[in-house]
Amino acid sequence: MLRSMYSGISGMRNMQTKLDTIGNNIANVNTFGFKKGRTTFKDMVSQQIAGASAPTAGGLGGTNPRQVGLGSQLGSIDTIHTQGSLQNTNRELDLGISGDGFFRVSDGGAPATNYYTRAGNFYLDQTGAIVNSSGYYLLNDNGGQIQIPPTAQSFSIGQSGVVNYVDDEGALQQAGTISIAYFANPEGLQKEGENMYQVTANSGIPGVTTPGQDGTGTLVAGTLEMSNVDLSEEFTEMIVSQRAFQANTRIITTSDEILQELVNLKR
Asked: What digits encode the pLDDT tens for the residues 66-77?
């Protein structure tokens, strides 16, 4: 069989993966805190036709190797952690991170499992604990939950993550300080769905600090970080991928026509 046919198949498979990634980006264009994906490729092993040779003593020069590539393969699917724009909501429990870092949330189990997110749309549950849309507890700098008493008259969240509230007697109280996690390699985090990430062997152990410390960003209350997906870029990449897919199908069609001509030699 022709090598070009298998090269075309590998190209089609890779372009489909890229289109899948683009489709997921576009689907999450309005997902709070979403970080877009990017697909890269690398060439597959090349078949050696002839090796390189050094210049000979008789005066002939050296020759370069002759190789035929066998297609392409998936290189990586990257998560691009660039800053998304902050959208004003004027809601006290909507929090955006201006800079690096992730919110820490926990399922509250024993032992608890911690997750990390850039989505800052938080809520109060029946007990006054701050939770995300899936019910995971927002953690303070000591790893505990942040509780605002249901009898509190009002509350506020500062840039440094301090949560203050006014109790039923009109006195100002502190409910805790929101913690921020940072990683040596945030691109090594694994997406777990529901706008959350989990630690992997390549992300590094999370450092825990308060907003604005250790190179992390500050909190902007009343805002939400939007997706960093650029629709114009995604549609452009979609067109490029579509044409590349079509070109690879043409390779298979042409290879098939050549094989058909070979079969017809018997007639």
From this structure: 888 888 999 999
